[in-house]
Design brief:
- The protein has 553 residues and is an alpha/beta fold.
- It has helices at 34-45, 117-130, 134-139, 164-173, 177-185, 217-221, 237-240, 254-258, 260-264, 289-293, 296-299, 324-330, 334-364, 370-388, 405-408, 458-470, 485-488, 500-512, and strands spanning 7-11, 18-23, 64-65, 78-79, 152-154, 188-189, 201-202, 208-211, 228-231, 250-253, 396-399, 439-443, 454-455, 478-481, 496-497, 528-532, 538-543.
- The chain has 3 domains: 7-49 and 113-264, Ribosomal Protein L4, Chain: A (3-Layer(aba) Sandwich); 319-364; 371-543, no CATH class.
- The chain has 18 helices and 17 strands.
- The protein starts with 6 loop residues before the first strand and ends in a 10-residue tail after the last strand.
- InterPro entries: Ribos_uL4_C_dom, Ribosomal_uL4, Ribosomal_uL4_dom_sf, Ribosomal_uL4_euk/arc_CS, Ribosomal_uL4_euk/arch.
């Protein structure tokens, strides 16, 4: 938006002719930044503030003391003495008549604000660049409709004017006096206390005249309303952009105008008078984006425009984070990511299952043979299944049939905290649905002690099955269900022999038919009988004769 042309005209003092042309200074090409100008102007304007404060003694020039508590009045200090209405009145506090103010002002307040030197120079360069754009000058309110050229440069003869009449004639000759008339007509009485403080009137701003050397120019122009003068070496942002608003009407002398390149430098060299200072540059030199896009250089490398698609009005906006279809339309690769996530989840699940299987096999491994491994798994699973199925509660007693000395002192209490000692008269068979424990008694006929009793758990069953597999004598163990004496009716207990093959066969039957009340164990072994109690619970499975050892076939 900066003004840019190679030459600028220099007009005579009479304003009727162009006496010469000079090169356009580079400072007028600087970026125009209203934000920086406003910030710097606000900070610089605070440098003119005069400290003020109230008297440090104000509000405390009385003898007052609090009456304390217990007199049904406020604890604020009260004026001492008597004989006057002032005695007993509150004092000192900011809520009291004649008291001090809250937080009395002090003269050591932070009145001024330091501004970076480079920021001040940037703001000055922006204000100068804005003064060369007629639109900004007109927008600020200056009357420049009849000015021949902006910025307005007049020959060095303007610096030698001595009389105000000659200065007024010069302003009329260059058609700048209408701005002075505007200022004169705007003079109004100030509202407020400023009338009493040497600021009785207020008016608009007129032209700013910038000169290089004072040969009488200051005396000639200083009494014209609204006209201000400044040396080119002392350019002030408060005058170039009054109120922080860009676009001051500036009249230059030829000497001052030609000195700008040395003062601010150019884009090819640094300033001669300001150490290591270079003009700020625009990030985008051409802000006309439409012109850039429509230029031949850009259009020849772009693809031709496609069909125009107009969005349907009043369409429902759907959340792509919740709506999968909308997500895939926005990001087709989302489908690949979802598929990969599902595959990873399946792999992780398969890995966890595999790890659990390995751990379970390691904890239930009893023998190298596959039959014993399957037997262990089935026995463990179905013992728990029978325990909970239809609230049936079973009690198992295992006898050592051959009175083996090497098993008489067998210590099977592998889990002492879960061991339960079963007594004969304990009513284990009941309708209680909370009974969830198998009770197993292993003892020797000679020492019928129940101290070795333990509760069935996965670990204990594994130990028993390992003994079944390692010791051949254990194949003759007898297996029976606990029988209530009231249901026996004096009949002799009949045993069912426990062998490795029979246990496996029994486990297979449990897997096929979990309802033991209907299970027929004589289908492949020998005729058996399932005895139930009054509540329909199975209390015994007995055989008429000793069953044979079932072969693998």
């Amino acid at each position: 938006m900066s003004a840019e042309r190679p030459q600028i005209s220099v007009y005579s003092e009479t304003g009727d002719s162009c006496i010469s042309t000079i090169e356009f200074p580079a400072v007028f090409k600087a970026p125009i930044r209203p934000d920086i100008v406003g910030f710097v102007h606000k900070n610089i304007a605070k440098s003119n503030r005069q400290p003020y404060a109230v008297s440090t003694k104000a509000g405390h020039q009385t003898s007052a003391e609090s009456w304390g508590t217990g007199r049904a009045v406020a604890r604020i200090p009260r004026v001492s003495g008597g004989g006057t209405h002032r005695a007993g009145q509150g004092a000192f506090g900011n809520m009291c008549r004649g008291g001090r103010m809250f937080a009395p002002t002090k003269i050591w307040r932070k009145w001024h604000i330091k501004t970076n030197l480079n920021q001040k120079r940037f703001a000055t360069a922006s204000a100068l660049a804005a003064s060369a754009i007629p639109a900004l000058v007109l927008a600020r309110g200056h009357r420049i409709e009849e000015i021949q050229e902006m910025p307005l440069v007049i020959g060095n003869g303007i610096e030698s004017l001595m009389k105000t009449k000659a200065a007024v004639d010069l302003l009329k000759a260059v058609n700048a006096y209408s701005d002075v008339v505007k200022v004169s007509n705007s003079r109004k009485l100030r509202a407020g206390k400023g009338k009493l403080r040497n600021r009785r009137h207020r008016q608009r701003r007129g032209p700013l005249i910038v000169y290089n050397e004072d040969h009488g120019i200051v005396r000639a122009f200083r009494n014209i309303p609204g006209v201000e003068l400044v040396n080119v070496n002392n350019l002030n942002l408060l005058q170039l952009a009054p109120g922080g608003h860009l676009g001051r009407f500036v009249i230059w002398s030829q000497g001052a105008f030609s000195l700008l390149d040395s003062l601010f430098g150019t884009y090819k060299k640094a300033s001669d008078l300001k150490k290591d200072y270079r003009l700020p540059q625009n990030i985008v030199f051409n802000s006309d984006v439409t012109r850039l896009i429509n230029s031949n250089e850009i259009q020849q490398v772009l693809r031709p425009a496609g069909e125009k698609h107009q969005k349907r009005p009043y369409t429902q906006k759907k959340n792509p984070l919740r709506n999968n279809g909308v997500k895939i339309r926005l990001n087709p690769y989302a489908r690949v990511l979802q598929r990969a996530e599902i595959i990873d989840a399946e792999k992780r699940k398969a890995g966890k299952l595999k790890k659990k299987r390995v751990q379970f096999k390691a904890s239930t491994k009893v023998a190298p043979s596959e039959d014993m491994q399957s037997l262990t798994t089935k026995f463990t699973r179905h013992s728990q299944c029978i325990n909970y199925y239809q609230n049936y509660i079973y009690v198992t007693i295992i006898y050592d049939h051959f009175q083996l000395n090497n098993h008489s002192n067998l210590d099977i209490s592998f889990e002492p905290e879960r061991t339960i000692i079963k007594e004969t008269n304990s009513p284990i068979l009941s309708n209680s649905t909370n009974q969830k424990t198998f009770i197993t008694e292993i003892y020797h006929p000679k020492t019928s002690s129940t101290n070795n009793s333990f509760s069935i758990s996965n670990n204990n069953v594994v130990i028993l099955l390992r003994k079944l597999d390692e010791d051949s004598e254990w194949s003759s163990l007898k297996f029976k269900y606990y029988l209530n004496e009231d249901e026996m009716n004096g009949e002799e207990e009949e045993k069912w022999f426990l062998t490795n093959e029979n246990v496996r066969k029994c486990s297979e039957l449990v897997e096929r038919q979990s309802n033991w009340s209907k299970a027929s164990l004589s289908s492949e072994i020998v005729s058996t009988q399932a005895i139930k109690d009054k509540d329909g619970l199975i209390v015994q499975i007995k055989s008429k004769q000793q069953p044979p050892i079932i072969s693998e076939s």
